[in-house]
Write a structure and sequence with these properties.
Layout lengths: L1 H5 L2 H51 L4 H11 L4 E6 L9 H11 L18 H10 L6 E2 L12 E4 L4 E8 L5 E8 L5 H43 L13 H46 L5 H29 L5 E4 H14 L3 E5 L5 E4 L1 H19 L1 E8 L3 E8 L33 H11 L3 E6 L4 E8 L2
Parallel strand pairs: 7-9
Antiparallel strand pairs: 1-5, 2-3, 3-4, 4-5, 6-8, 9-10, 10-12, 11-12
Length: about 475
């Protein structure tokens, strides 16, 4: 989940916006919920008090039969009204059970499915709950909505949404009224949820649009940087977006221009040095013929030929570095396999381990040259080589293994330095001028990869590692 979250800037921005929205709505809802619930409870009980006061005035002069019908017709889903001949207040807790019985009693021809304090199947549990509940006792009702001339007594329901009222009537009877709700539906919660969902959708829409405006230039910049790192010819990045992103694109384009200019200057300098050295070397070679001492002459000729070989290698390296080869998709396994076949036809002992089709975007000629240098290096000092390809989590590895004398650990990095040659097993008589491994690593790094050596016990394990795209 963390990886999915962190891979996209848009997901992070939209996610953080939604989290902020939810936290803000939760805090706001938590602050207003208590007051809102209390206000709704107060409103429901106030309506019950007002209804009871009005009903007391209406029935005070009615005969008993008519009173009973009016009281039954006045009942609602959560209220009941009835009369008793005596004062019900001394009954104490018993009044709770009487009120509950009235709430459970169906309303003939008015209500077909009234609800009470609990379902009938839960009678014992409700009775036990009422028995254990704190009994607040009756008290005088102090409510401006009570408009009846005779004061009423109120019995609050502790921790419940409800109350009981009793009031004496002029005929000596007592009007009993009960109001009870298991909960008060808060329509504001549904409205708040709907508004939160609507706000979340709007935030997602604007978040998606804004992140696209940010992410698209960054994606183009990332692709250009990847291509530049792999040595591809990259067009200047379009300078668009906000000022920060536009400045970043401008800086990248300037860096790319300076980098190309630096590489061009270095390549021209190497080519010029290699070319200019040819003339004095040729002059030295001619003057060597005038030396009378044959042994000294032979040594001088050998040294001059070595310098000419190094100069030629430098020129070749600079030309190849200056040449821009287009990148294209190739089958890496087929490319390395064909190279091994070609070198085997020239007499090299090479074993290639086929790893199937591995599609890869690269500069094929340059990559073949780097692999060829590694294979030639192995065959020169070990007489044979085993070539294989391996896919890892982040790279495609071209491995060249041999069973030769290997390279001492302290010199395993120095062999990549230009013109560096080992003094013993890899001497000047058996080796070249010392640019092969430098060229191979330069090509690997132009592809965004690298070359590493490690002991093979015996021999050497060479890996040309290329980044997976």
């Amino acid at each position: 989940m963390t990886a999915w979250w962190s891979r996209s800037l848009g997901r992070q921005i939209i996610g953080l916006m939604l989290i902020a929205l939810v936290i803000g709505q939760t805090i706001g809802f938590g602050i207003s919920w208590t007051n809102r619930r209390a206000a709704l409870k107060e409103a429901a009980q106030s309506e019950f008090v007002s209804r009871t006061a009005t009903l007391s005035e209406v029935i005070q002069t009615m005969p008993d039969d008519l009173q009973r019908n009016v009281l039954q017709a006045s009942a609602t889903m959560h209220t009941r009204f009835w009369t008793t001949p005596d004062d019900p207040r001394p009954e104490g807790r018993t009044w709770y059970f009487n009120a509950r019985s009235h709430l459970l009693e169906p309303l003939s021809n008015i209500m077909t499915n009234p609800k009470a304090l609990a379902d009938q199947a839960e009678d014992e549990a409700v009775i036990e709950h009422i028995r254990n509940k704190p009994f607040a006792g009756w008290s005088d009702l102090d409510n401006p909505l009570w408009t009846y001339a005779i004061p009423a007594s109120v019995l609050p329901f502790a921790d419940e949404i409800g109350m009981g009222l009793v009031v004496p009537l002029p005929n000596g009877a007592w009007l009993n009224a009960v109001f009870y709700k298991s909960h008060i539906p808060d329509l504001g919660t549904i409205e708040s949820l709907a508004s939160t969902i609507a706000a979340a959708l709007v935030l997602c829409l604007f978040g998606f649009i804004s992140t696209r405006r940010i992410a698209r230039p960054l994606q183009a910049l990332a692709q250009a940087a990847e291509g530049l790192g792999r040595g591809e010819g990259v067009s200047p990045v379009t300078e668009r977006g906000s000022d920060d992103i536009r400045n970043l694109c401008v800086a990248f384009n300037q860096m790319q221009h300076r980098l190309h200019r630096f590489i061009d200057d270095r390549t021209r300098m190497l080519a010029a040095i290699g070319h200019d050295l040819r003339t004095p070397l040729t002059t030295l070679r001619l003057r060597t013929e005038l030396v009378a001492d044959e042994e000294l002459k032979a040594r001088m000729v050998e040294t001059i030929e070595e310098m000419q070989a190094m100069t030629a290698a430098t020129l070749t390296f600079s030309k190849n570095d200056a040449a821009v080869e287009d990148t294209r998709n190739v089958d890496l396994g087929a490319l390395v396999g064909s190279l091994c076949d070609d070198m085997a036809e020239l007499g090299h002992d090479i074993a290639f381990v086929d790893s199937g089709v591995i599609a890869y975007r690269c500069r094929p000629d340059g990559l073949k040259r780097a692999v060829r240098n590694l294979i030639e290096n192995a065959c020169r000092y070990a007489d044979s080589a085993t070539v294989s390809l391996a896919l890892t989590g982040n790279s495609v590895d071209i491995c060249v293994d041999d069973q030769g004398p290997g390279i001492p650990l302290e010199e395993i990095e120095q062999v990549f330095a230009p013109f560096y040659r080992l003094e013993q097993s890899r001497s000047r008589e058996t080796g070249g001028v010392g640019l092969g491994l430098s060229i191979a690593r330069a090509i690997a790094r132009q592809h965004g990869g690298n070359i590493h050596f490690s002991p093979n016990t015996p021999g050497l394990h060479a890996v040309l590692s290329l980044p997976r795209i």
